[in-house]
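Table S5 (text form). Sequence records supplied for joint modeling of the three-component complex.
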Amino acid sequence: MTELPVEHGLLFAAALFCIGLVGVLIRRNLIFILMSLELMLNATAFVFVLGGALHGNADGQVMFLMILTLAAAEIAVALALVVHLYRRYRSLDADRLEAMKG
Amino acid sequence: MTTLFYLTMLIALLAALQVVRGLNAVHALLHLIVALLALALLFFLLGAPFAAALEVIVYAGAIMVLMVFVIMMLNQGDAAVEQERAWLDGASWRGPGLLCALLLLELGYLLLASDTGSAGWRPVAAAEVGRALYGPYLLLVELASMLLLAALVGAWHLARALKNRRGEES
Amino acid sequence: MAEFAVIIFRALALLLALVLSAALLTWAERRLLGLWQDRYGPNRVGPFGLLQVVADMLKLLGKQEFVPPFADKPVFILAPAIAMSTMLLAFAVIPFAPGFPLADLNLGLLFFLAMSSLAVYAILLGGYASNNKYALLGSLRSAAQVLSYEVFMGLALLGVVLQAGSFSLGQIVEAQRELWFCIPQFLAMVLFFIAGIAESHRLPFDLPEAEHELTAGFHTEYSGMKFGMFFVGEYLGVILISSLMTTLFFGGWLGPVLPPWLWFLLKTLFFVLLFVLLRAALPRPRYDQLMAFGWKCLLPLALLNLTVTALVLL
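The corresponding structure-token record, covering 586 residues in total, follows.
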């Protein structure tokens, strides 16, 4: 087990989060948006585990487990929706989804 | 050991950059898996081996497999790569890139300026996490299972609607 | 520094021994299949056909390293590498003798589960990179099968973990000094064995890669050494599941008279022979029968086993 200056760990998580954020903002392909979203989730999970290790209790890993559950649930439903959208619009472009009805 | 730490962080950041910049969906997904494995190694180095194992088994081993399944089912091919290249030109990078760089600078300043204590670094083994889950956090486990049940029912319903629609069309 | 060199040496020795055993297993399987199918196996090349292994290796190495022009080249080359490396990595935690696991991790069993989760990618990427509809279908089916049976495998293993009180494989072997776990965890043993067969996609669960189904499934486009790596990866999977069976349920290296590593070898060999016997004896179920069997029959049994174990132990 290594001791790391906490600021470096938090900076790393912030950098990972911002990279994911750039991906969500820029990409038009739905799959890429989902992947960048996963990066953001992982960055926050890292912060939780870092906090748990820093204070020496299991709470960080418990929260990590919850984030994992959340990510799994979200991905399952999101991918089912993506498949639906693909069959409907024949394209994975997020900009195609601009009509409210139909 | 600390060099290993910083090296792994660098690998994770580079892989994440490749995910965001990538043109081919499967290649970008592979880079994402590399980033997740790097994160798992970081968890292991921080003394959270249970989190590391779970990250590989559940995230890299199941959730990413789901995404590979969908990408393969949609099976877009080379036309998609060309389209991505057309969408991702220099102009579209500038605005959001600037905003996110500003955000990163802000976050960096806040995190470096604040005072976090560094007492109590301790590796936390799996048994302790288990005891926490079955002790004070029992309700959280039940809520997580309800969330998963909701996701299961939702995904099943959406898949059934697909099958029904395909039945009507053919 | 010297300790580091010792670890590297032991790791290399283990890797060499594993690849050689996987190669020998190809010969052993063909002879045994011949024995059980009332014919001779390879018996021309060398004494008892042992040099058949060398002949096969030379043939595979000598073939042209062909990547189909329509295939996704980096992923095409990556897939067999993943197949072999994850299987080899999983052997790092298996205790061959007291003090001999290469890395007695506290989470040894979870490490094995992690490696088998990563092995799914070999199938998926192999089928995708081939850019061939039969390969894609075969790989999707195979990946779905492996993923489903991985769930049951994990649940069955949890019974063992409850009984032993630790994820570490060395400690699980130590906890079997009085009684091998095959007796209290009989259901878990059967479940783990069935799930293990599905994991290494051997008969009777090898529908997605059988030669007559979907033109050999996800390794349709592979030839030469890359196919050899898939092949060796599959046999390594067989040896891995067999050694895990002995470690988790049959006492590992525990035994009265012989040296520990010999006991481990004998027990593992027994299970490897069992794998080959199953290949010779059983027919292949259809894909939907396979998945229905898994989810409707094995999952409730695994949960039942876990519940009963927890109730008895608490």
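Note: Residues 148 and 154 of chain B are 10 Å apart (CA to CA).
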